[in-house]
Amino acid sequence: EIVLTQSPATLSLSPGERATLSCRASQSVSSYLAWYRQKPGQAPRLLIYDASNRATGIPARFSGSGSGTDFTLTISSLEPEDFAVYFCQQRSTWPWTFGQGTTVEI
Amino acid sequence: QVQLQESGPGLVKPSETLSLTCTVSGGSVSGSYYWSWIRQPPGKGLEWLGYIYYSGNTNFNPSLKSRVTMSIDTSKKQFSLKLSSVTAADTAVYYCAASYIPVAGTLDYWGQGTLVTVSS
């Protein structure tokens, strides 16, 4: 199965700062990569699909880039609700798999 | 807007079968979505268990393939998960989720999740 490795494991930032999260795949997933945000005690929420497309209702401060094996999620200016765990996930090859997550903390 | 709600026992004994149901509201279970189960052990990452289409076609994660079954009842707008021979390693929050077929494998809608603990 395709292994997704996220870095860093934890990102310590302040509100208003820029966050850059990385996800590397063990083999090419083309552009079939999504990003989710998970707040404590909640289900994940889709932010970005197919590498760079914002999901419905997701604000413009979230952007995704990359293709093949290397992907980036950028949050241009952190809001209080953005301090959470972020997961990447590939849909290129079954079984669809998730990264282990990056925690964005204050 | 599709809404999903998991239901089922919160405690299952080792070696028994875990059974969960997901009820869909705000949309039909027929045609537009794959219906999935994902789990998350406490404090850990996410694992996709498998998915089912309204026709009954399924695809399961090979890591669990021999233990997992899924079914769907379109009249009740429900789909279900059964995981047999459970151990403590199956303790997790179980989510049902929906994946819009044109972008199959992207989880657009999630249930709130239900914690299932495997313990005697």
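qc> The radius of gyration of chain B is 13 Å.
qc> done
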